[in-house]
Every structure is written in C-alpha cells, then in structure tokens.
C-alpha cells in the first residue's frame, strides 16, 4: 500500500479523535463551571444517541455522555490511531 494512503488513513482517524477530544474537554470544563450539575444542557454538547433512532427517548443523558459515552469513543478512536500507526509504520503491514 502506498505510504501516502497510509498517512491519510491515520490522519483521518487522528482528526476525528482530536475533534472528539476537543468536545470532551469543552464539556468537562462547562460542567465543572456548573458545579457538575448535569441537568443543565450546554450549547455545544452535540447529540449522542444510544441507537440510530432519532427519537428523544434514545437520547443519552448529559451525565452518561460526558462520563461514559464520549470517553469510550475517545478510547476506541485513539486505539485505532495507534494500531494503524503500529501496523503500518512499525510492522510494515501491507494490504494487497
């Protein structure tokens, strides 16, 4: 596989993980300022759903999103980034 393609794949996942990290930092700072009152909605929380349904009853609570949902997403995205870096550039994995 071309090195340029490998770099682009790694960068794509790194950018997505960085955006998630930025959103998480903003939310943690917001709720810290609000004395950890998760009943207050913030304007940059985004919408996170338990499933793919658009119904309100599927919506995650603020507490769950900040303390469980997004940290889990961050762990998965960064694990993918590091696995791709390790596989592509250290082990030299090629896909034909």
Protein traits:
96 residues, mainly alpha, Transmembrane protein, membrane, transmembrane helix, transmembrane
What does this entry look like structurally?
- The protein has helices spanning 3-33, 62-90.
- It is elongated.
- The longest helix is centred in the N-terminal third of the chain and has 31 residues, at 3-33.
- The chain has one domain.
- The mean pLDDT is 81.
- The chain is mostly helical and 96 residues long.
**Structural classification:** mainly alpha
Any idea what the radius of gyration is? 17 Å
Percentage of residues in strands: under 5%
Number of domains: 1
Average pLDDT level: 81
Spans of at least 5 consecutive residues whose pLDDT stays below 50 are: none
Helix content: 55-70%
User: How many β-strand stretches?
Assistant: 0
Order of helices and strands: HH
- Principal-axes shape call: elongated
Please give the count of helices. Answer: 2
Q: Largest sheet at a glance?
A: none
Terminal Cα span: 7 Å
């Amino acid at each position: 596989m071309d090195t340029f393609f490998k770099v682009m794949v790694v960068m794509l996942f790194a950018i997505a993980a960085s955006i998630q990290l930025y959103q998480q930092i903003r939310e943690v700072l917001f709720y810290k300022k609000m004395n950890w009152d998760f009943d207050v909605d913030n304007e940059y929380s985004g919408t996170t759903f338990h499933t793919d349904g658009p119904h309100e009853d599927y919506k995650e609570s603020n507490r769950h999103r900040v303390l469980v949902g997004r940290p889990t997403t961050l762990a998965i995205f960064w694990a993918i980034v590091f696995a791709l870096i390790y596989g592509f550039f250290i082990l030299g994995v090629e896909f034909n």
